[in-house]
Amino acid sequence: MHTGPVIIGFDGAPASVQAVQEAGALLAPKPALVVFVWAAGRSFEEATLPETGALEEPGGVLDLGNAFEVERAASDQAQQLAEQGAELARKAGLQADALAAPHETTVADVLVKLAREHDAAALVVGMHEHRRLTRLGPSKTLTDLFHAAPCPVLVCGTPKPDA
Question: Could you report the per-residue pLDDT of 46-96, keeping only the tens digit for each?
């Protein structure tokens, strides 16, 4: 039996809002960790990599100082989004904390790692509408979660337009 919190993947999209609400309805008052996974380091890549197609010439002016500021702003925005998700989770009856988690590999890898580290009771994610309309199978992220998660995975759909 897993004794840790519910890990909820949150990106602010309607599907993730629905996932938070459904997790609260099913699992409250359980502890939860609402996680926004973000791509850290992109501003450094943009500041140091050559422009596309111009391998012989260096890219624009290297501005690592600006890259640090852009990264700090991205980190702050990621934490704010995670906090918004945690606030929604608290309103849904969960004892929620927020985490903005940078990723070096995939979103699924980050969520699975956190689930292992926290002995998560479950992983909760939303299924984005475009996935249901264009594909019959789950996305790569969902497939990876299903295969690697050390706990149950709850996938929630998006709210109906009438709701």
Answer: 555 555 444 444 444 446 667 788 888 889 999 999 999 999 999 999 999
- Count of domains forming the chain: 1
Structure tokens at 122: 């479950």
Q: What is the pTM of this model?
A: 0.80
Question: CB under 8 Å, gap of 24 or more: what pairs does 71-77 form?
Answer: 71/40, 71/41, 71/43, 71/44, 74/38, 74/40, 74/42, 74/43, 75/38, 75/40, 75/100, 75/102
Answer yes or no: is 88 within a domain: yes
Domain hosting 126: range is 6-39+79-156
